[in-house]
């Protein structure tokens, strides 16, 4: 006899949880979404969500089909001299977009530009998983932290659109080092210098 409230462990259950997670994260945002709310939406026990995905963060990354885990990459990129953080962050972003994982990111970016639901999910990913981590690693606790994060996002989104979506030359074929040298001073200013 099966326990009520649980589905048998299979791909349909996993997919139902992912679909519910996308819906709840898009509607409520990462911070206001809960495993319990996602389980209710998926019509499963919350323990089953934990069984498949572990934490809310891991579920969010899975629901985004994220090719990377910012929790593993951002701290390493931010480690080092504070006055070189912009350079390291731009280099990290370009290394991800230029890697095989970048194809999934480009598809998600294209979708976000034409679909509000996808835009909400991508916004939550960029803010909660990338920018918030970078700001925390730099220990920026001043009142401008949100503005600084959004300005950094403007540079990263801009280069992603120009290089990988629109493919505007010579940026589209420029080597990463050239782009890092060009973009890093602005990103550094946004991160640590007076606005």
Our measurement of the CA-to-CA distance between the termini, rounded to an integer number of angstroms, reads: 64 Å
Number of strands: 0
CATH topology of the largest domain: Tetracycline Repressor, domain 2
CATH level-4 homologous superfamily of the largest domain: Tetracycline Repressor, domain 2
Rg value: 19 Å
The helix/strand class is mainly alpha
How many discrete structural domains? Answer: 2
* Main sheet makeup: none
The residue ranges in which pLDDT falls below 50 over 5 or more consecutive positions are: none
If helices are DSSP runs of H or I spanning 4 or more residues, what is the number of helices? 10
Principal-axis shape equals globular
CATH class of the largest domain: Mainly Alpha
Tell me the CATH architecture of the largest domain.
Orthogonal Bundle
Please give the share of residues in helix: over 70%
Compute the average pLDDT: 87
Percent strand equals: under 5%
Helix-strand sequence: HHHHHHHHHH
Descriptive notes:
- It is built from ten helices and no strands.
- It is mainly alpha-helical and 195 residues long.
- It has two domains: 11-63, Arc Repressor Mutant, subunit A (Orthogonal Bundle); 70-192, Tetracycline Repressor, domain 2 (Orthogonal Bundle).
- The longest helix has 22 residues, at 11-32.
- The radius of gyration is 19 Å and the shape is globular.
- It starts with 10 loop residues before the first helix and ends with a helix.
């Amino acid at each position: 006899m099966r326990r009520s409230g649980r589905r048998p462990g299979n791909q349909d259950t996993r997919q139902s949880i992912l679909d519910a997670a996308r819906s709840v994260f898009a509607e409520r945002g990462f911070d206001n979404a809960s495993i319990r709310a996602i389980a209710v939406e998926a019509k499963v026990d919350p323990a089953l969500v934990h069984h498949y995905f572990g934490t809310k963060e891991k579920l969010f990354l899975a629901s985004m089909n994220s090719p990377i885990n910012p929790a593993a990459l951002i701290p390493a990129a931010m480690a080092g001299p504070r006055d070189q953080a912009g350079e390291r962050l731009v280099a990290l972003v370009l290394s991800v977009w230029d890697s095989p994982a970048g194809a999934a990111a480009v598809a998600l970016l294209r979708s976000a530009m034409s679909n509000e639901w996808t835009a909400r999910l991508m916004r939550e990913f960029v803010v909660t998983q990338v920018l918030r981590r970078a700001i925390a690693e730099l220990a920026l606790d001043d009142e401008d932290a949100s503005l600084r994060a959004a300005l950094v996002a403007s540079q990263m989104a801009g280069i992603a659109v120009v290089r990988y979506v629109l493919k505007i030359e010579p940026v589209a074929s420029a080597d990463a080092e050239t782009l890092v040298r060009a973009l890093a001073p602005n990103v550094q200013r946004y991160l640590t210098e007076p606005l």
